[in-house]
Amino acid sequence: MKIFAFLILFTAGFIGASSQDVAALLKEADRLEAVPNEIAAFNKFKEVLVVQPNNMHALTKCSELCSRIGSREKSSTNRDTYFAAALAYANKAILVDPKSDKANVARAMALGKSSMTKSGKEKIRSAKEIKKHLDVALATNPSNYVAWHILGRWNYELSNVSGVEKAAAKVFFGGVPQGSLKDAIMYFEKARTLSPHFILNNIELAKAYHKNNEDAKAIALLKAVQAFPISTEDDAKHKADALKLIKEYK
Predict the structure, then answer these.
(1) How far is CA 211 from the centre of its chain?
(2) pLDDT (average), residues 131-136
(3) Which of 13-17, 61-65, 192-196 has the lowest mean pLDDT?
(4) Contacts of 173 (CB under 8 A, 6+ apart)
(5) I need a labelling partner for 133 at 20 to 30 A (CA). Which of 44, 106, 113, 191 fits?
(6) What is the Cα–Cα distance from 25 to 28, expressed in whole angstroms?
(7) pLDDT tops 60 at residue 167
(8) With 70 as the cut, is the pLDDT of residue 162 above it?
(9) What's the DSSP call for residue 37?
(10) Helix (H, G, I), strand (E, B), or coil: what is residue 8?
(11) Domain 1-104: CATH superfamily, name plus number
C-alpha cells in the first residue's frame, strides 16, 4: 500500500506555482520519455501533478507509463501495483474530462494490462468496459492511433476466446462481445496508417496476418520494424521478438 500511495500521490498544489514552472516540467518529462527513460519521465510527470493535480497531459502520461513500466516488472506484486496506479491516474483524468480521447485510451490500456493475468471471466468483463472507452476516444478523436491499436488487440484477443470461456461469459455477462480476426487486421492497419513506425502495432498486425495464413505479409512487417526508431523502453525487445517470429513463420 505504501508503494501504491507513492505512485499516485495527488496534492492540492503549490501556492504561487507559475505556468512557466509547469511548462518546464512538462518539457523535461516529454524529453525523458523520448530518451527513453520511462521511470524518470514518470517521476517528472508526477512533479507536474504536485503543482497542477488536474493537468490532463501529466495524468494520462502517468497512467500510460505505469501500464508500460508495470508490464516489465518481474514481481507480480510490483506489476499489479503499477497497474492499479495506471487505473487510478486514468480514473482521475476521466473525472477531469470524461470525453478526453487520451483519458479514455489510458483507461482502456490500464484495464487491458490489469486483466491479462485474470481469469477468462474477468477478461471478458473488462473487454466490455475497454470497448466503451475506445468508442468514446474514437468519437472524440478518430485520429488517435493508440485507440485503433487497442481496438485491434481487443478484436484479436476476443477472436481467441475458448468455448469454455464463451459458455461462462454467457452465464455471467450475457455473452462474449463480438470480435474477429478480420476486424483486428483492419484496425491494426488503421493504426499503421496513422502511425507507420509504431513498432508494437506492426508486430501485432504481423501476428494477426500469420493467424490469417498470410505469412508473407507478416514477415515483411517484422523485417520492416528492424529499421524503425526506438520510441519506448520496450521497443528493443519488440525488435528482438520480431526476429524470432520471422524464423518461426518461415
Answers:
(1) 22
(2) 96
(3) 13-17
(4) 121, 124, 125, 128
(5) 44
(6) 5
(7) no
(8) no
(9) -
(10) coil
(11) Tetratricopeptide repeat domain (1.25.40.10)
Q: Which residue is it, cell 455477462?
A: 173
Closest by Cα among 35, 34, 53, 33 to 43: 33
What per-residue confidence (pLDDT) applies to 198?
98
3-class DSSP string for 153-170: HHHHHHCCCCHHHHHHHH
Looking from the CA of 208 toward its CB, the CA atoms found within 13 Å total 26
The residue behind cell 500510460 is 64
The domains of the chain are located at 1-104
In the block, cell 506555482 appears at: 17
- Please answer whether residues 110 and 86 qualify as being in contact, where contact means their C-beta atoms are separated by less than 8 angstroms: yes
pLDDT at position 174 is 47
Query: What's the length of the chain?
Result: 250
DSSP 225: G
**156-195 burial by CB neighbour count: b if 16+ within 10 A, else e?**
bbbbebeeebeebbeeeeeebeebebebbbebbbbbbebb
Pull the grid cell for residue 215: 505469412
Using CA atoms, how far apart are residues 99 and 138, in angstroms rounded to an integer?
10
DSSP 130: H
- Is the pLDDT assigned to residue 94 strictly greater than 90? yes
Q: What single-letter amino acid sits at 163?
A: G
Residue 241 · residue 217 · CB < 8 Å: no
Predicted confidence (pLDDT) at residue 100 exceeds the cutoff of 80: yes
pTM: 0.89
The amino acid at residue 78 is N
Q: How many CB atoms lie within 10 A of CB 136?
A: 21
